[in-house]
Amino acid sequence: MVSFNSLLAGTLLTVSLSLRSAAFPYGHQFVRGVNLAGWLVLEPWITPSLFENTGNDQIVDEWTFAQYQDTDTALSVLKNHWDTFITEDDFSQIAKAGLNLVRIPIGYWAFEPGQGEPYIDGQLPYLQNATVWARNHGLQIIIDLHGAPGSQNGYDSSGQRLSSPQWHTNQANVDRTEAIIVQIAELFVGDQDVVSAIEPLNDPAGYMGEEVLKVVRQYYQNSYGLIRNEQPNGALVLLHDAFQEPHYWSGFETPPQAEDVAMDTHSYQIFNDQVGRTFEQHTQAACELSSTFSQFNLWVIVGEWTPAYTDCAKYLNGRGIGARYDGSYPGSTSVGSCEGMTGTGDTFSQDYKTNLAKYWDAQTITFEKSTKGWVQRTWKTESAHEWSYQAGLQYGWIPPDASHHNYPQICGGT
Ligand SMILES: *[C@@H]1O[C@H](CO)[C@@H](O)[C@H](O)[C@H]1NC(C)=O
């Protein structure tokens, strides 16, 4: 009887898992989504008030947020933020906008706060509840490990702003990260109908060269094996391109060595001297991206991009750091004034809103032509509305249905 029961249970389990794992056909059904950035990992430019309210200029990321405040104070602010910044109502609005996916950044400290590290945890139950909300509203989730021990890029969005990222320098950091990937794959094994993609690491600093890239390649291969161990027919494994050109990844994790792997590439024209392009040049460059994307061997999802064409949003380059656009960023040369380029949508001119709409279309049209999906950064911001999908809907530069284009000929048509 015992063996009969377990056989029966095993059969039922297999049936229910295989039904669930078939939920989202990546590569065949197009992804239109938004990042839920600044929710379970703080980013100063998304919620400047949380940082300014501390009254402490040294608080520039989630690490220092916990380090330089009384723990009870920091925890109560974080808890209130987790409870209110994103709720089920956001999932409902996202689905109504014709989107089918959310990418949710989360830091390693939600899973395993390290000894002697100041981080405050408590994010994980929110991620778990988000799977319920996603199911209720027909949305898919990419769980995106946005912060790894030691920081994989030194950006404040990794939890820790550092001039020199440390993740790759110490195998113990990588081992801890792999253990978290196992935890994620295990925790969400029953939720594959919504948690249909896992991204083992966001934005590793591949531009630092081979010392980083060799660690990233090995980590990606290991993560793939660890995820498939837990989920044999499970989540898509989404690999950030580590800022490398398509040819760098040629043949990497392609079938038959790996199945259901896709590349995440991030598309911005503002974090270097490209910020100096005219509006027409930005739009044209977006239209021309098809030729790059089509060179990837793997499916490509543009996991971050924005209709913003300046870096004017306050704290975008870090709290207390200026913008390249107006020359207030160290070493930059002014292109123009940030006046009117960031803030709330009610302060934007009609011309500016028209440009945001055109640039949004140039990018989505290009992505729809040459990739398997796009995920805008980000759904919501306190004040930098040029980045906010929700504000774009409200003020009209983003169409009410995500598959619609107001300027279908912006890239010349086909
Ligand atoms: C998750 O959802 C349950 C059921 O609605 C609720 O009781 C619980 O407080 C939620 N957890 C968090 C962390 O919000």
Describe what this molecule looks like in 3D.
- One of its GO terms (cellular component) is cell surface.
- Keywords: Glycosidase, Hydrolase, Signal.
- GO terms for molecular function: beta-glucosidase activity.
- Residues 72-306 form the Glycoside hydrolase family domain.
- This is Glycoside hydrolase family 5 domain-containing protein.
- This protein has 414 residues and is α/β, with parallel strands linked by helices.
- It contains twelve helices and eight strands.
- An eight-stranded parallel β-sheet has the order 7-6-5-4-3-2-1-8.
- Helix 6 (124-137) links the parallel strand 2 (101-107) and strand 3.
- Helix 5 packs parallel to helix 6 (124-137).
- The radius of gyration is 21 Å and the shape is globular.
- The N and C termini lie far apart (65 Å).
- Residues 1-22 have low confidence and may be disordered.
- The protein binds 2-acetamido-2-deoxy-beta-D-glucopyranose.
- Residues 125-126, 129 line the site of 2-acetamido-2-deoxy-beta-D-glucopyranose.
Brief account:
It holds the Pfam family Cellulase. With 414 residues, the chain is of the alpha/beta class.
Average residue-wise pLDDT: 94
Which ligands accompany this protein? 2-acetamido-2-deoxy-beta-D-glucopyranose
Task: Please estimate the helix content.
Answer: 25-40%
State the order of secondary-structure elements, H for helix, E for strand: HEHHHHEHEHEHEEHHEHEH
Counting copies of identical and different chains, the oligomeric state is single chain
β content, as a range?
5-15%
Please give the alpha-carbon distance between the first and last residues: 65 Å
Q: How many β-strand runs?
A: 8
Instruction: Give the overall silhouette.
Output: globular
Low-pLDDT stretches are 1-22
Structural class: alpha/beta
Tell me about the biggest sheet?
Answer: 8 strands, parallel
> What does the radius of gyration come to?
21 Å
Helix segment tally: 12
Tell me the strand order in the biggest sheet: 7-6-5-4-3-2-1-8
